[in-house]
Amino acid sequence: MKLLIKIVKLAKDCDIISFHAMPTALPYIGWFLPVISKYFKKPLIYRAFGGLYYADLLWPSRIIARYMLKKSDLVLLQTKELMNRAFKEKFINVDYFPTARPMSMMKNHEIKACKRFVYIGHLKVAKGLQYLVEAAEKLPDDAFVDVYGPWYDLPKETFKFRKKIQYKGVLNAGDVLNTLCTYHALVFPSFMEEEGYSGIIMEAYSVGIPVIATKWKALPEIVEDGKTGVLIEPRSDEDILRAMNMLYHDSDYYMKLRDGVMSERIKYSQQRQTEKFVRICNDMTIRN
Length: 288
What we know:
By secondary structure, this protein is α/β, with parallel strands linked by helices. It has helices at residues 2-13, 26-29, 33-40, 61-71, 80-88, 129-136, 176-180, 199-206, 219-222, 237-249, 251-264, 270-287, and strands at 17-21, 44-48, 74-77, 94-96, 116-120, 144-148, 165-167, 185-188, 211-214, 229-232.
């Protein structure tokens, strides 16, 4: 209730109401924002986080979420897959707005061999870490995988008695880029249902390292096979190992991927997306 009261107070003096959240948050507040938008005659923008579509929610959450989408002046969707689903339902108030990160100038130009692999993210079964563990154990002697992130439902014994893969703890947000700079490639074997444009992939691009990721949901939209990384089958330790070995043994291919990352990463620049959002808000304010 305190939050709703605060929103009402803020809405009176703002030019635009903008709500940024996963679709799972819509049942709690999605019914309220269109009402406030209409009452105060303020344009409403909803920016959806993640790769979950409103229709994937359970009833009645799905009904509330659809109401929010229909009543918003503009809905910003994170992936092209979500855009296609919205267009199929005849939504015309949608626009593509991918995850973005600051594009750092940090890059180790001297690395020409890929031996140090890393996973950074939630430790969940659906992130495919059990398959990464099996693949890591078969890497060449001087290659290894480090894992960082908070524990969720992944069994605590996952990394015990393993020689080629180690759990390194949880990183502070400010340490992620510096940590990524010490590795050669990110491995992201997720098959999580709500997977969208993962922020850690953007952060890997920020420091110029390629990504091994699954052909899952919208991940192939941001990891271009043979250009910025290697795409693998979900739930396959054999395919994870194949991709890691490819980067380990073929330094020319690895350097080609690094060059591809540096040329393509501008698409996910935070500055670029911020400027786009400001333009959207200015245009809405003028029209209103």
